[in-house]
Amino acid sequence: MKVVRVVAAVICDSIENKTKVFSTARGYGDLKGGWEFPGGKIEEGETPQEALKREIMEELDTEIRVGDYIDTIEYDYPTFHLSMDCFFCEIVAGHLTLKEHEAAKWVTKDTIRKVDWLPADITLIDKIEAVLT
């Protein structure tokens, strides 16, 4: 099975005091409309952190600071295996302009489970929920 290595940004209002995180709905592909944490593929020669900064600038026209590593999610979709490194992040500059996603919203501890997360992303919710205040 093909392995796809990606990174995901769990963008918080503040890395030090997390009260909400940013979620996006995919705007293309087989998983279109499913909710996820933004990010993308790691290119050859990039660290996961470098890939995350590049992907968020490309997809959301926003500069981020990459904080603590959360987890690496390993998930088998029907046609590929996803290996996703996930990090807490915060905005340095920009306004989270949607360039590739069809929708976005901030979710809190009270609303994070009301989102129709993609299968790989939902496996992160317990760890994120545990640190939201």
Write down the Rg: 14 Å
The count of helical stretches stands at 3
The best one-word shape is globular
Low-pLDDT segments, ≥5 res: none
Structural class: alpha+beta
Number of strands: 7
- Strand percentage lies at 35-45%
Q: How do the strands line up in the largest sheet?
A: 4-1-6-5
Please report the distance between the alpha carbons of the first and last residues.
Answer: 39 Å
CATH architecture: Alpha-Beta Complex
Q: Mind summarizing the main beta sheet?
A: 4 strands, mixed
Instruction: Write the H/E string, N to C.
Output: EEEEHEEEHH
CATH topology title: Nucleoside Triphosphate Pyrophosphohydrolase
Mean residue pLDDT: 96
Spell out the CATH superfamily: Nucleoside Triphosphate Pyrophosphohydrolase
The helix content, as a percent range, equals 10-25%
The number of domains is 1
CATH class: Alpha Beta
In brief:
By secondary structure, the chain is an alpha+beta fold.
Could you walk me through the main structural features you see in this protein, from its secondary elements to its overall organization?
The chain has 133 residues and is of the alpha+beta class. The protein has helices at residues 48-60, 119-122, 125-131, and strands at 3-12, 20-26, 35-36, 39-41, 62-76, 81-94, 101-108. Strand 5 (62-76) and strand 6 (81-94) form a beta hairpin. The mean pLDDT is 96.
Key phrases:
about 130 residues; alpha+beta; Nucleoside Triphosphate Pyrophosphohydrolase; 4-stranded mixed beta sheet; 3-stranded antiparallel beta sheet; globular
